[in-house]
Amino acid sequence: MKKKWPVIASIAASVTGASIAALGYTLSNKVMYIKRKDQQFIFDREIAANRFKLEWYESVPKEDFLVSSINGYDVSCQMIHSVDSKNTVIIAHGVTETHINSLKYAALFARLGYNIVVYDQRRHGATGGKTTSYGFYEKNDLKAVVEEVRRKIGDDAILGIQGESMGAATALQYGGTSEQLFDFIIADCPFSKFEDQLQHLMVRDTPLRSPYAIKFIDYFVQMRDGYNLKDVSPIDVVQNITKPILFVTSLEDTYIPPKMTENLYEKHPENSRLVLFEKGAHAKSFNEQPYDYEKEVLKFLVDFNISYVPNNYVNPEKMLQTQ
């Protein structure tokens, strides 16, 4: 009987190890392979909400192009030639979305005198990539897009980046670690540290409360995708950005707490501005108050001497009042 105990113990250890590994793969899968929204669903949603101005979009010239990423795949991009200018804004969407979601900002920037580039982030839409990494690998894709757009528009044109949620976190991580070929960033509801963001969502949405759960996930993400969660941290690099930043969030955001945006602003108070909107769930500041959002963007561009009010500019709120 005694001879059987080592065998039983070995089996029990193997079963326990296999269970732990299975749990680690399951939890890390939720991070690396987060479920994405269907592009047709995004299109229909934006049309129904009257945020995607289809008639305007179809009336302006567009150019589809691909950019090769150092990560080993092509990034799918589209340039919207909305104005007679070289000034351009690159818009980076959030996790689970595609470039279709970015188009809600297109008419805004067109009114302010900018052409627009939208693109699909890694593993979203038509862009390659096996996993989602919340800015760790995505910042390299954005770097490639910025370099190509700068080549297209020349060194004298103004080039901005607007990012929403993961797109904002990507923009800040790119801006803080690369040559700054851009002239400004608008960071809408970014997380400050991805570890803290995961912890917040675990406490909010699951029975898991211990920070050791994050360390457990981190081990499997590092083993499977080659990076540590602590390396996905805009707040560690935001102070390296020398160009103006507009930080935007809404006080009703429970997905990425507004305190994270405030902390990022506190790390970069010089040459930046923080706008806290009263209304709006996560990434919905523009959806809830589009006219006020546009006013804040315009004020930022003018106050920081980035660009000026176009001669033909009319705030859309005033246009509606005269109709």
Automatic annotation (TrEMBL):
Ranges where the Serine aminopeptidase S33 domain occurs: 85-197
Record carries keyword Transferase: no
Keyword vocabulary terms for this entry: Hydrolase
Protein name from the UniProt record: Predicted hydrolase of the alpha/beta-hydrolase fold
Keyword Nucleotide-binding: no
PANTHER family: ALPHA/BETA-HYDROLASE, EXPORTED PROTEIN
A Gene Ontology molecular function term of the record: hydrolase activity
InterPro entries: AB_hydrolase_fold, DNA-binding_regulatory, Hydrolase_4
Organism: Kurthia zopfii
